[in-house]
Amino acid sequence: MARRSQRKADSRKAKQWYKIVSPEMFGRVPFGETIANDPERIVGRIIETTLGDLTNNFSKQNTKLKFRVDRVAGDSAYTKFLGHEMTTDYVRSLVKRRTSRIDTTVDVTTTDGYTVRIKPSCFTVKRARANQVKCIRDLSKNVVVERSKNLDLNQLIQDVVGGKISLDIYKEAKMIYPLRRVEVRKTEIRTEPALSGSGPVPPAAPSAS
């Protein structure tokens, strides 16, 4: 019994705190901590935060970010971007009676080989007709594809989260029918660049924290 207690005590003493560091596209800034007795146990952990917490801007609390720990160096755990999503409450607040919500799903490939699924949503001032909905959906897809084709992953995510792609869609789609707002409500990394000539690599499955 005494030996078992001693082993447990040693295990607790061996644990260390590691700073969670955001990806390059978010400035490589520390935004939290995690604990482990072996740095390899941290690799693969899924970390969630909000853009508001990351930037100290409370108005961005409706944007959730998902990262995965990719490597550990010293006392820092560096992360990769997995995706973002607008909170359900925020998206619901944009949906009004007698208006149209026009959702689009677009898969694009960045210049550095990532496949990203992007889901913009347009919210009209009043209810649009079926042909107008189709035109706005097609236009949204075309804008995302055109905007993305010359961007690497860092640039693309910065444009998405920073609202540039939403603004581009808004400027063009409002010519078809008046819009109240456009948001990219979700992104997701579908595949990562191929390694050593192999096929596309899907993001690693989440591991237990």
Kindly describe this structure.
- This protein has 209 residues and is α+β, with helices and mostly antiparallel strands.
- It has six helices and nine strands, in the order H-E-E-E-H-E-E-H-E-E-E-H-H-H-E.
- It has helices at residues 2-14, 51-55, 88-94, 130-148, 153-161, 164-173, and strands at 16-21, 30-36, 46-50, 63-73, 76-86, 101-103, 106-109, 115-124, 179-191.
- Helix 4 (130-148) packs antiparallel against helix 6.
Q: Give the averaged pLDDT, no decimals.
A: 90
Radius of gyration: 21 Å
Question: What's the helix count?
Answer: 6
Determine the structural class based on helices, strands and strand pairing: alpha+beta
- What pattern of helices and strands is seen along the backbone? HEEEHEEHEEEHHHE
Q: What's the count of strands?
A: 9
The largest β sheet comes out as: 9 strands, mixed
End-to-end Cα distance, whole Å, is 29 Å
Helix % is 25-40%
Low-confidence stretches: 205-209
Strand content: 25-35%
| C-alpha geometry | elongated
